[in-house]
Design brief:
By secondary structure, the chain is of the alpha/beta class. It contains eight helices and 13 strands. The protein has helices spanning about 105-115, 135-150, 165-170, 185-195, 245-250, 275-280, 290-305, 310, and strands at about 1-10, 15-20, 25-30, 50-55, 60-65, 70-75, 80-85, 90-95, 120-125, 155, 175-180, 220-225, 225-230. The strands form three sheets. It has a six-stranded mixed β-sheet with strand order 10-9-8-11-13-12, with helices on both faces. Bound molecules: guanosine-5'-triphosphate, magnesium ion (MG) and zinc ion. Zinc ion (ZN) binds next to helix 6.
Length: about 300
């Protein structure tokens, strides 16, 4: 039996890097496995530790080893299926841009919530700061301060002008790092800059729509120092999976300081009297955008209640 790690998955075919060896073997999956108890569009994700058997030049994945953690999103907003972005990761990076394309804070908050749900440390990377006017730079700094105050590590960078790259690289080196974000925010460009031996395909931003074009189509791990950078396809939205409404306030890091003091211990922080989260929003201790991010996740969940069992 040979042990390895899945560095690329296209759904049916996998590339597995063999442990303590530099060889990479194309693999297929033996039969049908139903390893995990939720419906997933990809039963084997990038980062998976597997056992393979060799037959001819090809490998067969015969076993998936237990996962340390995972980042999962609903594949589309109303989908019954979950999509595993990556597993066994040390940091979950969300790449954010104020423009070209514009990333909504709700997207960021949902990603952060999913990382918290899975006990993975998230990092916020604000890219394309070279494009910002003075006014937009102030807006960016306000956003950055807000997330730093909550307790998230943030970086402001420009891949094009090589600003902040080495500081970020130093922070994540030798770890397994997932990069996610909307299409066109510069995930692949950032990976190419960090590891100059790579030349991953990058895209242009459509000038009419100021959006990316989904240049990266499959998640793939690339070496960086002793660790890996996981490039992923750009996503539009981020739906959480596998939660109940009462869990959600725990996924918002700063909410945990207030929720124990709400009048009702089953407070959903929406309409109840004596809610300490609502009063923290009113007094400005919790940001309004974070609170609306929280409400949007709760609302999603209510809309989907009747078919919750389908995707858990
Ligand atoms: N102005 C500016 N453009 C950048 C910067 N970083 C990346 N870009 C450009 O943004 C475009 C999209 O970059 P990609 O790296 O392909 O973006 P991506 O996030 O991998 O996109 P998908 O693979 O579609 O998810 C390219 O034209 C890059 O040159 C930056 O710091 N400043
Ligand atoms: Mg890409
Ligand atoms: Zn409350």
């Amino acid at each position: 039996m040979i042990n390895g790690i899945v560095i690329k998955s296209t759904g049916k075919h996998y590339l597995v890097k063999i442990d303590n060896d530099s060889s990479i073997v194309p693999c297929v999956l033996r039969g049908k496995f139903k390893q995990y108890d939720y419906k997933s569009t990809n039963p084997i994700a990038v980062g998976e530790y597997v056992e393979i058997e060799l037959s001819g030049g090809e490998g067969v994945i015969v076993k998936i080893l237990p996962r340390k953690n995972k980042i999962v999103r609903r594949s589309t907003n109303l989908s019954r299926y979950a999509h595993v972005l990556a597993v066994n990761i040390d940091y979950a990076v969300v790449v954010f841009t104020l423009k070209m394309p514009k990333t909504y804070l709700e997207f960021l908050d949902r990603f952060l919530a999913a990382a918290e749900q899975n006990f993975i440390e998230p990092i916020v990377v604000i890219n394309k700061i070279d494009l910002l006017t003075t006014e937009e730079t102030l807006e960016m700094e306000t956003i950055r301060n807000m997330y730093e105050t909550i307790g998230y590590k943030t970086f402001q960078i420009s891949v094009n002008q090589c600003i902040g790259i080495s500081e970020f690289g130093e922070f994540i080196k030798n770890r397994t790092v997932l990069l996610s974000g909307n299409s066109g925010v510069g995930k692949s460009s950032l990976i190419n800059t960090l590891n100059s031996k790579l030349s991953i395909k990058t895209g242009r931003i459509s000038s009419a729509h100021t959006q990316g074009r989904h240049t990266t189509t499959f998640a793939e791990m690339h070496p960086f120092g002793e660790g890996y950078l996981i490039d992923t396809p750009g996503i539009k939205g981020f739906g959480l999976t596998d939660f109940t409404n009462s869990d959600v306030s725990d996924f918002f890091k700063e909410f945990r300081l207030y929720s124990p003091y709400c009048k009702f211990n089953n407070c959903t922080h929406t309409h109840e009297p004596g809610c300490k989260i609502k009063s923290a929003v009113e007094s400005g201790q919790i940001s309004k955008t974070r609170y609306s991010g929280y409400l949007s996740i709760i609302t999603d969940n209510e809309t989907d209640k009747y078919r919750k069992d389908d995707y858990i």
